[in-house]
Specification:
The structure holds three protein chains of three kinds.
Chain A (H helix, E strand, L loop, with lengths): L7 H13 L5 H4 L8 H8 L7 E3 L6 E3 L5 H22 L6 H20 L3 H20 L4 H32 L14 H15 L7 H8 L2 H22 L8 H22 L5 H25 L4 H30 L5 H18 L5 H13 L4 H31 L11 H17 L14 H20 L10 H4 L35 H21 L13 H4 L2
Antiparallel strand pairs in A: 1-2
Chain B lengths: L4 H10 L1 H7 L5 H27 L4 E8 L2 E7 L1 H24 L6 H20 L3 H19 L5 H32 L13 H4 L1 H18 L8 H4 L5 H10 L1 H24 L3 H20 L4 H21 L3 H32 L10 H4 L1 H15 L5 H15 L4 H26 L14 H19 L7 H12 L2
Antiparallel strand pairs in B: 1-2
Chain C lengths: L3 H18 L4 H26 L2 E4 L10 E4 L1 H22 L13 H17 L3 H19 L5 H32 L7 H4 L3 H18 L8 H7 L2 H26 L4 H24 L3 H22 L8 H30 L16 H14 L5 H15 L3 H25 L17 H18 L2 H8 L4
Antiparallel strand pairs in C: 1-2
Classes of the chains: A mainly alpha, B mainly alpha, C mainly alpha.
Chain lengths: 565, 490, 476
C-alpha cells in the first residue's frame, strides 16, 4: 500500500473547493463532496500511522502529524463528514444557495480535519478559524429569520472564541518560545494563557454558559450540518482542550473546580431547557450540551487528579466517539423522518431512532453503556471530595439524556411530512445507524463488557416520568408554550427605530472658510500716502539716530522700534 | 551604471509624468502604453535593486542643493520593502485606473499626477536623509491633491480642501521639526540605530519637541488620531485614487516616515531613553480602537473602509513604537500586508460601484451572486483585515502580539483582540449581506466590468493569501522584514 | 576695456536707442538684445565662479571720481535673475496676441531695454549716487511700461506709481546728499563710517525709507497693488518680479556693508516685513480679482524677503542673507510666471474675477497649470527654491532660537497657501464643472513663457547649489 502523505487530509477538501469555484465544473464535481474526507479516514485507519510532514515554507512553518489522541478523532470526524456530505447532497438537491452551502461545508471540513493533524500553533489556529467561520455559512443556509438570528449569535460567539484562543496562544507561544501546539500544555505556560485558550475552546465545546449559540445554530442549520456541528465540531473543541490543558501532568484544582461547575451546570440545564423546546433538533442540541458537559466533567477530573488521566483519557475519548456517531445519526435521521408521512414507515424509522436514543441514554449492550461504564470507572480515581456528588451527577446526566431523547422522539413523531424532502436522505442515516449499532463490537473491549442492570434505571425512570407527564398534560388539557429561542439572548430585541418622516438632504455648505468677502476697497487717498511716507521716514530716521552705534542683537523680538533707543 | 539604479527607478515615474501631463486627452492608447511600460520597467528595476540589496549592495546618490543640504537617494532593505509594495501596486492600480476611467475626462491630468504621486512615493522610499524625505513627502501632498479633487464636484473640492489643510499643516510641522533637527545636528542622514549621537543627552527637551513635530507631520498622513480627519473625507475620490491613498502611497508614506524617524533618526535606544516610545504606542493603540469604532457605524462602503484604514495603519505604528524586534517584524510586515489587503478591498469596492452602482453597505445584498469574483476578492481582503489565518493580516497580528509581550505590554494582546472583534463586527455584516442575502429584485447591471477592472483585485487577493500562506518563505514580506529588523536591532 | 560687466550696462541702453529709432525692427532687436544680455549674464556668472569677484572702472577712472562697476556673486545673481525673467517676458511679448485682442503698443521694447539696462547698472553700482541715478532711470521706464496699454486704469496706475516713485527718489536723494555731507564720499564702502555718526545714520534712514517706498514695503505699499494689477501682463511681471527687487537688493547691500552698526535698520526691516506679510496675505484672501490677488501676494512676499533680510543679522557672522537672496530669486521667477499666467487666463476668460474662474466652457489650460506651479513655489513647498530659501532661513533662525520669527515665517507660509489655493483649486476644475464640449485654450507664447518660468522656479530648488556658490564670491 502506498503511504498516504498526511497533507492530503486537509488538502483533499480544499482542492475540491478550489475546483468548485469554476462554475462549469460544478455539476460534475458536486458528487465528490462526500468523498473529500475519505483520505482522512484512510489516514486514520492506516497502519502504521502516516509519517509526520514538515512544510517549512507554509505559514510560520507548518508541521502535520497524526498523534495517538488525534487518530480516533480523525476517524470519526472523517466518517461523519462523509455521511453528512452525502445527505447534504440529497437534502439540498434543489435548494437555493446549494453551492454556497457546499463551499462552506468543504471549508469547514478542511478546518475540522486539518486541526486534528496540525502540530503547530499557526496551522491549528488557521484550521480552527476556517472551521468556525465556514460553519457560519452552514448555520445561515436557508436564510429564514431563525437562521439569521442563529447566525448572528453564532458568529458573535465564534469570533469572540477565536480571539480568546488567539490571545491565549499568543501568550502561550511567547512564554514558551515554542510554536508547537503540544508545548501549550507545558508547565511554563501562564495560567492566563491557559484560561484564554480554554475559553476559546469551551465556546466551541458548548460549555455552559458559553453554549448560547449552540441550540440556535443546531436548530437552524440543515440536518447534515447539525450532524457535523454536533458530532464533529464540538469534538474539535474537546480535542483542543485535551491538547492544550496540562492533563495528566499538573494538578490545577482551581481550574478543575471551575470546569466541573460548568459541566454540572450543563448537566442540569440541558434537560431543563431542552425539554421545553418545541423542535426536535433543538432538543437534540440541548442533549449535546449535556453530553459535552459530561466530557468536560471528565476533563475536570483529569485536571484535579493528574494520576487518573491515563484512565480518564480513553474514557472521555470513548464517550466522544460514541456521542459523535449517535448524535450525528439522530440528526441525520430527522430529515429521514420528515420525508415520510405518519404511518408504518415512519414508525419503523422512529423505532430505529429510538434504538439510537437508547444507545445515547446508555442502555446496556450499546456503545453508550460501554462509554459510560468506562467513564464511571475512571472517575473513581477522582479526588475524594468529588465522589460525594459524582454519582448523582452521572445519574442526572443519564436521566436527562433519556428524557431529552423521549421528548425528541415525541416531537419527531408529530412532525409534519415535508414533501420536498427526498426519500434517499435516509441512506446516509442508515449508514450512521449501522455504525452505532455495531459499535459494541467495534469498540475496543466493548463486546466483553458485562451489562450492568443499574444502567436500565435512568431510561426506565425517564419513561415513567414521561408517561406521568403525558397523563398530567392530557388530563388537564394543557399545552406547552415553547420558549423563545436563544434563552437569555432571546429576551433582547432591537428597539424599533422610528422611520424618518422625511429625508431631506442637509443644506449645502457654502462656507469657504478661507475666503473673506467684502465690498469695494476704499477710495484712494493720495495725501494719506504722502503722510505715510513722511511718517515712516521720520520714524526710521529717529530710530537710527538714537540707536547706539554698537552691535545690537537683531533677533531680540519683538519690534525693537519701541524697545530700543 | 548600477549605482544609478535608484535614480532610474525614480525617473521611471517622475520622467513620464510630464510627458503624460502634456498629452491630449484622447491619446489614450499611447498614454496607456507609456504608463504600463513605465510601471513594468520600474517593477523590473525594483526587482533588480531588491536582489542587489539582498546580496549586500549599497546604493547612494547625492545632490547638494545648499550648503549642508543635500538631496540623497539611497536604497537599503527598508526602502526595498516600501519600493516593492508601491511598484507592484502601482502597476495594478494603473491597470485598474485605465479601465476605471475609460471614457472619462481629464485623463492625462489624472495619470500624470498619478505617476507623480508614485514618483514621490518612490522618493520617500529611497530618501537618504531627512531633508530628502521632507521634499518628497510634500511633493506627495501636492501630487495627490489633483487626484482627490479629480471628480470636480463640490464635494470633491471640499474633500480636497480638507485634505490640503491637514496635509499642508502636517507638512509644516514636519518641515519645522526637520529644520530644527538640522539646526541642532547639522545633518540628518538615515542610518540604522539613529544618528543623533549625544544630542538626546545635551538637548533632551528640544529633541523631544522635534520628535513631536516630526510625528505630527508624518502622523497626518499616517492618519493617527486626531489627525485622521482627511482620510474618511477623501473617499469621494475615484476608486483607484482611494487605493493609492490607502494602500500604495499616502498613508503608507506616513507610516514609513514613522519607521524612518524612529529607527533611522532617533534609534531605538534614544526612543527608550527619552520615553518617547510609550506615548507613541499609546497613540497608535487609541487610533486602532477609535478607527475601528468609527467604522462600525458607517453605511458608506468606502467610508467604512477608510476608517478601517485609520485603524489598520496604526498597527504599523504600534509595531514600530513597541520597541521590540518581534513587534517591529509585525509592524513592518503590516506595511505590506495592509497595503495588499486594503487595495483589494478598495478595488473590489470600486468594482461594486462601477458594475452595479453599489456604494453602501446596505446595498451589498446578494453581491456574491451578482459579482462573485469581486466579492470573493473583497472577502479575502476583509477576512485578512480581521486577522483570520492563514491570511496576511494574521501574520502581522501574530508578531505584533508577540512583540507586545516581548515589550512587556500584554495589553497589546487585549488591544489586538478588541480591534479584531470590531473588525469582525464591521466586515462580517458586509460579507453576510453579500453572500447570504438575496439580491434586490430590481438589480440591474450598470456596466460590464472589463478585465482591467477584474484582474487587479483578484491578483491582490492572491497576494493576501500568498503573503499569509507563504510567510515563512525567504522572499515573503515577513522574510524580508525579519531581514530588516535584524539590521535595526542588532 | 570691454568686459561682460560693461557690456551688460551699455548694450541694453544702446539697444533701447536702436529700438526706439527703428520701431519696425524693435521686436527682433529687442529679443536679440535680451538674449545677448542673458548670454553675458551667464558668462559673468561663470567668470565669477572661476576667478572670484571683480571691480571694473568705466573708462579707467578710479573711485571716488569715476564710476566703478562692482561685480560680485550677489550682483551676478541678480543680473542672472533679471536676464532669465526678462527673456521669458520678452518671449511673451514676441508672441502674437490672441485673436481679437489689440496688438501690443510699440513702445514696449525701448522701455523694456531701458529698464533692463537700468537694472543691470543698478546691480553693478558701487556707490549711493549711482544707485540713485539708476533708480531714476528705472523708475521712469517702469512708469512707461505701466502706462503702456493706454487704458484709463493703466494711466491712473502709472500716475500713482510715478508719484510714489518720485517721493521715494526724493527721500533717496536727500539721504545720499546727507551722506555725502557727512562722509565726503558716497561709495558703499563708506557705509560703515556713516553708521558711526548720528547724521550718517539719519542719512541711511532716509535712504532706507526711500527704498521702502520703491520696494512697496508695508506700510508704504499702498500704490503697488493697483499699479501692478492694472498694467499689461508683461509689465506687471517685470514690475512685480524685478523692479521691486532692486530696492530690496540695495537694502541687502546696505545691510551687508553696514555690519553690526545697522542693526536697528534691520530690525525695522524685519518688523515692516512681518507686517507686510500679514497685511498682504489678508488682502490677498479678500481680493476678488486674480491680478489683484497676485499683486497683494507680492506685498506679502516682499514682506517675507524683507523679514529675511532683517533677521539675517550681521552678515559678518551669519550667512542667512543668502537665504534672503535665494528667496528674491525664487520670488522673481515665480511671480513673473504667475503674472504672465494670470494675463493668459484673463485673456482666455475675458475677465479676471476669481469667482468666475470656473467657466464651464473652458478647460484648464497650460496657463493655469503654470499658475499652479508658480503658486507651489511661492508658498515655499519642495522642491522649489522658495522651499530651500525658507528652509535655510528657518534653520538659521532656530539655531538662534528666534522662535517668534520662525512662527511668523510659518504663519506667512500658511497664509500664502490659503490665498493661493483659492485660485489653484479652481485650476483643477473638472467633472460637472466642465461642459462636455468644453474647449481647451490653444497654446500661446505667453503659456510657454509662463510655464518655462514656473518650471524654472521649480527646478531652481534642485539647483540651489549654484546660487549659493555664486553668493559665496564676494569682494574681500
Amino acid at each position: 500500500m502506498i503511504a498516504l502523505p498526511l497533507w492530503i487530509v486537509p488538502a483533499a477538501p480544499l482542492v475540491l473547493l478550489a475546483l468548485l469555484l469554476v462554475p462549469q465544473a460544478r455539476p460534475a464535481l458536486r458528487a465528490l463532496v462526500p468523498l473529500a474526507p475519505l483520505p482522512a479516514l484512510a489516514a486514520a485507519l492506516a497502519s502504521p500511522a502516516p509519517a509526520p510532514v514538515t512544510l517549512d515554507w507554509l505559514m510560520l512553518g507548518t508541521e502535520l502529524a497524526l498523534t495517538d489522541t488525534a487518530r480516533p478523532f480523525l476517524g470519526f470526524t472523517a466518517a461523519l463528514w462523509a455521511l453528512a456530505g452525502w445527505q447534504a447532497l440529497r437534502l439540498l438537491r434543489d435548494a437555493p444557495g446549494r453551492d454556497r452551502f457546499l463551499a462552506c461545508f468543504l471549508l469547514a471540513m478542511t478546518g475540522n480535519l486539518g486541526l486534528l493533524v496540525a502540530q503547530d500553533i499557526a496551522a491549528f489556529y488557521s484550521f480552527f478559524a476556517a472551521m468556525s467561520l465556514a460553519s457560519w455559512g452552514l448555520v445561515l443556509q436557508g436564510g429564514g429569520a431563525a437562521q439569521v438570528f442563529a447566525g448572528r449569535v453564532y458568529i458573535g460567539f465564534a469570533v469572540t472564541g477565536e480571539l480568546a484562543l488567539f490571545a491565549g496562544l499568543s501568550l502561550g507561544a511567547f512564554a514558551t518560545g515554542e510554536t508547537r501546539l503540544a508545548a501549550m500544555a507545558g508547565p511554563e505556560v501562564p495560567a492566563l494563557a491557559t484560561a484564554l485558550m480554554a475559553a476559546g475552546l469551551l465556546v466551541k465545546l458548548g460549555a455552559v454558559p458559553l453554549h448560547l449559540w449552540l441550540p440556535l445554530a443546531h436548530a437552524a442549520a440543515p440536518a447534515p450540518a447539525s450532524a457535523v456541528l454536533s458530532g464533529a465540531m464540538l469534538k474539535a473543541g474537546l480535542f483542543g482542550l485535551m491538547t492544550v490543558l496540562p492533563l495528566g501532568s499538573a494538578a490545577l484544582p482551581g481550574a478543575a473546580a471551575g470546569l466541573a461547575a460548568m459541566a454540572l451546570a450543563g448537566l442540569v440545564l440541558a434537560p431543563a431547557l431542552g425539554l421545553v423546546q418545541a423542535e426536535a433538533k433543538a432538543v437534540l442540541a440541548y442533549s449535546s450540551i449535556g453530553q459535552m458537559s459530561l466530557m468536560a466533567l471528565g476533563l475536570a477530573a483529569g485536571l484535579a487528579a493528574p494520576a487518573a488521566w491515563p484512565l480518564l483519557g480513553p474514557a472521555v475519548l470513548l464517550l466522544a466517539v460514541h456521542h459523535a456517531f449517535a448524535k450525528a445519526a439522530l440528526f441525520l435521521g430527522v430529515p429521514a423522518v420528515w420525508s415520510t408521512a405518519p404511518g408504518a414507515l415512519r414508525a419503523a424509522l422512529l423505532a430505529a431512532l429510538a434504538l439510537l436514543a437508547l444507545a445515547l441514554a446508555g442502555l446496556p449492550a450499546t456503545s453508550g453503556a460501554i462509554a459510560k461504564t468506562a467513564l464511571k470507572e475512571a472517575l473513581e480515581a477522582a479526588p475524594a471530595g468529588w465522589q460525594v456528588w459524582l454519582g448523582t451527577a452521572l445519574f442526572a446526566a443519564s436521566l436527562g439524556t433519556a428524557l431529552l431523547m423521549l421528548r425528541a422522539l415525541w416531537l419527531l413523531a408529530d412532525a409534519p411530512q415535508k414533501p420536498d424532502t427526498a426519500g434517499d436522505v435516509a441512506l446516509p442515516w442508515l449508514g450512521a445507524t449501522g455504525l452505532v449499532l455495531a459499535a459494541p463490537w467495534l469498540l475496543p473491549g466493548g463486546a466483553a463488557a458485562a451489562p450492568d442492570p443499574a444502567d436500565l434505571v435512568p431510561p426506565g425512570l425517564a419513561a415513567a416520568l414521561a408517561l406521568a407527564a403525558l397523563a398530567l398534560v392530557r388530563s388537564f388539557g394543557l399545552r406547552l408554550a415553547p420558549p423563545k429561542a436563544g434563552e437569555l439572548l432571546g429576551l433582547f430585541e432591537a428597539a424599533p427605530r422610528p422611520a424618518p418622516v422625511l429625508a431631506l438632504p442637509p443644506p449645502p455648505r457654502r462656507g469657504r472658510t478661507l475666503v473673506v468677502r467684502r465690498g469695494r476697497g476704499a477710495v484712494a487717498r493720495p495725501e494719506r500716502g504722502a503722510l505715510a511716507i513722511l511718517g515712516v521716514a521720520a520714524a526710521l530716521a529717529l530710530v537710527m539716530a538714537l540707536a547706539p552705534a554698537g552691535p545690537a542683537p537683531v533677533s531680540a523680538p519683538p519690534a525693537p522700534v519701541t524697545g530700543e533707543g | 551604471m548600477t549605482e544609478l539604479l535608484p535614480l532610474a527607478i525614480l525617473m521611471t515615474s517622475l520622467g513620464v509624468a510630464p510627458a503624460i501631463l502634456a498629452m491630449p486627452d484622447d491619446w489614450s492608447r499611447l498614454r496607456t502604453a507609456v504608463n504600463l511600460a513605465a510601471a513594468a520597467l520600474k517593477l523590473g528595476l525594483v526587482a533588480w535593486l531588491s536582489l542587489s540589496v539582498a546580496q549586500g549592495a549599497e546604493f547612494g546618490l547625492g545632490l547638494e542643493i545648499a550648503p549642508g543640504l543635500a538631496l540623497e537617494l539611497k536604497a537599503d532593505a527598508l526602502s526595498v520593502l516600501f519600493l516593492a509594495l508601491s511598484s507592484v501596486l502601482w502597476l495594478l492600480t494603473t491597470l485598474y485606473a485605465v479601465g476605471y476611467l475609460e471614457g472619462g475626462t481629464d485623463r492625462s491630468r489624472f495619470f500624470g499626477f498619478f505617476s507623480l504621486c508614485v514618483a514621490a512615493t518612490v522618493g520617500i522610499a529611497m530618501a537618504g536623509n531627512l531633508f530628502t524625505f521632507v521634499v518628497f513627502f510634500e511633493l506627495l501632498t501636492l501630487a495627490t491633491w489633483p487626484l482627490v479633487v479629480h471628480r470636480g464636484s463640490a464635494e470633491a473640492h471640499r474633500a480636497g480642501r480638507i485634505y490640503l489643510v491637514y496635509t499642508l499643516g502636517g507638512g509644516l510641522a514636519l518641515t519645522l521639526g526637520a529644520a530644527w533637527l538640522y539646526a541642532l545636528a547639522g545633518a540628518v542622514p538615515f542610518a540604522p540605530r539613529g544618528v543623533l549621537g549625544d544630542l538626546p543627552q545635551t538637548h533632551p527637551v528640544a529633541v523631544t519637541a522635534i520628535f513631536v513635530l516630526l510625528i505630527a507631520g508624518v502622523g497626518v498622513k499616517a492618519a493617527l488620531v486626531p489627525l485622521h480627519g482627511w482620510l474618511p473625507v477623501s473617499m469621494v475620490a475615484p476608486a483607484p485614487v482611494s487605493a493609492l491613498l490607502h494602500a500604495v502611497a499616502v498613508v503608507k508614506s506616513g507610516a514609513y516616515g514613522i519607521m524612518r524617524i524612529v529607527y533611522d533618526v532617533y534609534g531605538v535606544e534614544t526612543m527608550q531613553g527619552l520615553g518617547l516610545a510609550a506615548p507613541l504606542a499609546a497613540l497608535a493603540g487609541a487610533t486602532i480602537l477609535w478607527g475601528s469604532f468609527r467604522a462600525l457605524r458607517q453605511d458608506d462602503l468606502k467610508k467604512r473602509l477608510a476608517y478601517s484604514t485609520v485603524s489598520q495603519v496604526s498597527y504599523i505604528t504600534l509595531g514600530v513604537a513597541l520597541i521590540s524586534p518581534l513587534a517591529a517584524v509585525g509592524g513592518l510586515a503590516h506595511l505590506i500586508h495592509q497595503g495588499i489587503m486594503k487595495i483589494t478591498l478598495f478595488l473590489a469596492a470600486g468594482n461594486f460601484a462601477e458594475g452595479r452602482g453599489v456604494k453602501t453597505v446596505s446595498g451589498m445584498d446578494g453581491m456574491g451572486r451578482l459579482m462573485p469574483g469581486a466579492t470573493l476578492a473583497f472577502t479575502v481582503g476583509a477576512l485578512g483585515m480581521i486577522g483570520v489565518p492563514p491570511l496576511a493580516g494574521f501574520i502581522s497580528k501574530w508578531y505584533l502580539g508577540a512583540g507586545g509581550l516581548d515589550a512587556g505590554q500584554p495589553a497589546v494582546i487585549a488591544l489586538l483582540a478588541g480591534s479584531g472583534l470590531m473588525n469582525a463586527a464591521y466586515f462580517l455584516p458586509i460579507l453576510y449581506r453579500a453572500w447570504f442575502r438575496d439580491p434586490p429584485a430590481d438589480a440591474v447591471p450598470k456596466r460590464r466590468i472589463g478585465w482591467m477592472l477584474a484582474v487587479p483585485p483578484a491578483v491582490t487577493a492572491g497576494f493576501v493569501l500568498a503573503a499569509g500562506l507563504l510567510a515563512n518563505a525567504p522572499f515573503s514580506p515577513l522574510g524580508w522584514t525579519r531581514f530588516i529588523v535584524s539590521l535595526e536591532y542588532l | 576695456m570691454v568686459t561682460e560687466t560693461s557690456l551688460l550696462v551699455t548694450l541694453p541702453f544702446l539697444a533701447a536707442l536702436a529700438a526706439a529709432a527703428a520701431p519696425r525692427a524693435a521686436a527682433t532687436l529687442g529679443m536679440a538684445a535680451t538674449l545677448a544680455n542673458a548670454g553675458f549674464a551667464a558668462l559673468l556668472a561663470r567668470a565669477l565662479l572661476a576667478d572670484g569677484a571683480r571691480e571694473t572702472s568705466l573708462g579707467g577712472w578710479e573711485a571716488p571720481l569715476g564710476i566703478t562697476l562692482r561685480a560680485d556673486g550677489l550682483a551676478a545673481l541678480m543680473i542672472g535673475m533679471t536676464a532669465l525673467v526678462g527673456s521669458a517676458v520678452a518671449l511673451q511679448a514676441m508672441g502674437r496676441p490672441a485673436p481679437g485682442r489689440p496688438a501690443p503698443a510699440g513702445g514696449f521694447w525701448p522701455l523694456w531695454l531701458a529698464t533692463l539696462g537700468a537694472m543691470n547698472a543698478l546691480f553693478l553700482s558701487d556707490d549711493l549716487f549711482n544707485l540713485y541715478v539708476t533708480f531714476e532711470i528705472l523708475g521712469l521706464s517702469a512708469v512707461g511700461l505701466t502706462a503702456l496699454t493706454g487704458s484709463r486704469r493703466a494711466l491712473r496706475a502709472a500716475f500713482d506709481y510715478l508719484s510714489a516713485g518720485l517721493a521715494g527718489s526724493l527721500l533717496l536723494l536727500l539721504g545720499v546728499a546727507l551722506a555725502y555731507a557727512e562722509a565726503g564720499r558716497v561709495d558703499l564702502a563708506a557705509v560703515p563710517a556713516l553708521v558711526e555718526t548720528m547724521r550718517g545714520r539719519i542719512a541711511l534712514a532716509l535712504v532706507l525709507a526711500g527704498l521702502a517706498v520703491k520696494a512697496a514695503l508695508f506700510p508704504l505699499h499702498f500704490w503697488m497693488p493697483a499699479a501692478h494689477a492694472n498694467a499689461a501682463p508683461p509689465a506687471s511681471a517685470l514690475l512685480s518680479a524685478l523692479v521691486v527687487k532692486t530696492a530690496l537688493y540695495v537694502a541687502l547691500r546696505l545691510s551687508l556693508e553696514g555690519g553690526a552698526g545697522i542693526a536697528p535698520a534691520r530690525a525695522a526691516l524685519a518688523v515692516a516685513g512681518s507686517g507686510a506679510m500679514l497685511w498682504g496675505a489678508w488682502n490677498a484672501l479678500r481680493a476678488e480679482r486674480l491680478k489683484l490677488l497676485v499683486a497683494h501676494s507680492t506685498v506679502a512676499q516682499i514682506g517675507l524677503i524683507a523679514l529675511a533680510l532683517g533677521v539675517a543679522g550681521n552678515p559678518a557672522d551669519s550667512t542667512l542673507w543668502q537665504a534672503a537672496a535665494l528667496l528674491m530669486l525664487s520670488h522673481a521667477l515665480a511671480k513673473a510666471a504667475m503674472f504672465l499666467a494670470a494675463g493668459r487666463i484673463a485673456e482666455e476668460l475675458g475677465h479676471d474675477r476669481i469667482s468666475g474662474l470656473n467657466r464651464t466652457e473652458l478647460r484648464p489650460g497650460a496657463a493655469e497649470f503654470a499658475f499652479a506651479i508658480a503658486a507651489v513655489s511661492l508658498i515655499g513647498l519642495p522642491p522649489t527654491a522658495g522651499f530651500v530659501g525658507k528652509w535655510v532661513l528657518i534653520e538659521g533662525l532656530i539655531a538662534r532660537e528666534a522662535w517668534i520669527w520662525v512662527a511668523l515665517v510659518m504663519t506667512g507660509t500658511v497664509l500664502s497657501a490659503a490665498y493661493l489655493s483659492r485660485v489653484v483649486s479652481r485650476c483643477l476644475r473638472g467633472g460637472p464643472h466642465v461642459a462636455p464640449g468644453a474647449r481647451r485654450p490653444a497654446w500661446h507664447m505667453g503659456d510657454v513663457a509662463a510655464l518655462g518660468l514656473a518650471v524654472g522656479a521649480l527646478a531652481l530648488g534642485l539647483a540651489s547649489a549654484l546660487p549659493f556658490a555664486l553668493l559665496e564670491t564676494t569682494l574681500t
